[in-house]
Amino acid sequence: MTLLSSDQFPSCHVFKSCLPFLFVALLFQFQTGFSALIMSLKNHPGHPQHRRPMFQTNQSTCALFVGTWVRDDSYPLYQYSNCPIIDAEFNCQLYGRPDSDYLKYRWQPLNCVLPRFDGLVFLSKMRGKNVMFVGDSLGRNQWESLICMISASTPKMQTQIIRGDPLSTFRFLEYGLSISFYRAPYLVDIDVVQGTRILKLEGIDENGNAWRMADVLVFNTGHWWTHKGSLQGWDLIESGGKYYKDMDRLVAMEKGLRTWSNWVDTYVDRTRTRVFFQSISPTHYDPSEWGTGATATVTKNCYGETAPMTGTTYPGTYPDQMRVVDEVIREMHVPTYLLDITMLSELRKDGHPSIYSGDLSPTQRANPDRTADCSHWCLPGLPDTWNQLFYTVLFY
């Protein structure tokens, strides 16, 4: 960690469709959760974790986030051609992805059946409300997915979209429902002083003022905390009134999340607003994590992957950032539901845009080792399942 002195810088529910539990499954779930929690508490923050912790932030009789992907030819829930809101970087079918089997998978939890998403139900239950996604481009990925899913049920409804930065809003006018995306990759504020971008680990008022009136808040952060070089989103970090050129990224993330959690606990009216936090969305840039098949010898990333992993666990590493997320959320006073999509998303190595992310040149597409996007997700695609889970937790 490099410290700059101040003189070096200018001053400035229970589900209707749940199946009866099997005793063996329940015992397995308890034993796995208890042992994994103990392991999580024992691990030192600086040591990489290669196991999946069982988070205790959500109390439910249905293991929503533990299960398998099953083939279902009734999917996808909408067609890209009927949803013009999809950004080019997520619109894989439009930009030439030749396979479509990745669209035909449904998430099957271990011990219950998810209700099928119904856009009209969402509209009727959320009439007059404001739903806001806050975070990075993975939040935008999910925001666009939800709009597409609702629109598929109401193709002739009058709507309005206002795109901006940091705030974009889509309105279903007949129902008075607004679904917004607020871009805040770190959740905490970034100030620009004399051309220098300062990541303020204890500053959130500028962003937070835009979130106060939402009825449902869905937060996410993660990827930007690890970016370095040209992808790094800041020049200096401010913490405790001091400036740093860099610091341990997990430490920085935890400080930022503590600031966010304090904001939620201070300003969110728990009688009016429901708060969700989307867990870390995984990337698939290293084929050695999921196997040594033929594709691993062809590319260094997700290019060419057309099917999900089988089974219920991912053989690769589990994000260290999730330990930080879980610790922070468990200590909050305002109930915050962790949408723990990390493991089920890790199984979907086939769901990324790869080289079908926007209008890449033939030269770029011929070099997937450099240009494949194995971070975001195709639409239609995996974020639709995130929203199906969000819908389930919200209404059932």
Describe the model:
The chain is an alpha/beta fold. The protein has one domain. Helix content is about 30%, strand content about 15%. The protein has 11 helices and 14 strands. A 7-stranded mixed β-sheet has the order 5-6-7-4-10-13-14, with helices on both faces. A 5-stranded mixed β-sheet has the order 1-12-11-9-8, with helices on one face. Strand 6 and strand 7 form a beta hairpin. Helix 2 packs across helix 3, helix 3 crosses helix 11 and helix 5 packs parallel to helix 7. The longest helix has 20 residues. The radius of gyration is 21 Å and the shape is globular. About 15% of the residues have low confidence. Pfam families: PC-Esterase (PF13839), PMR5N (PF14416). One of its GO terms (cellular component) is membrane. It is found in: Membrane.
Tags for this model:
single chain; 396 residues; alpha/beta; 11 helices; 28% helix; Trichome birefringence-like N-terminal domain-containing protein; TBL
Could you give the topology of this structure?
Elements: E1 2-4, H1 23-42, E2 67-71, E3 105-109, H2 119-125, E4 130-135, H3 137-153, E5 159-162, E6 167-172, E7 177-183, E8 190-193, E9 196-200, H4 205-208, E10 216-219, E11 236-239, E12 242-246, H5 249-267, E13 274-278, H6 294-298, H7 321-330, E14 336-339, H8 342-346, H9 362-365, H10 368-371, H11 382-395
Parallel strand pairs: 4-7, 4-10, 9-11, 10-13, 13-14
Antiparallel strand pairs: 1-12, 2-3, 5-6, 6-7, 8-9, 11-12
Helix pairs in contact: 2-3, 3-11, 5-7
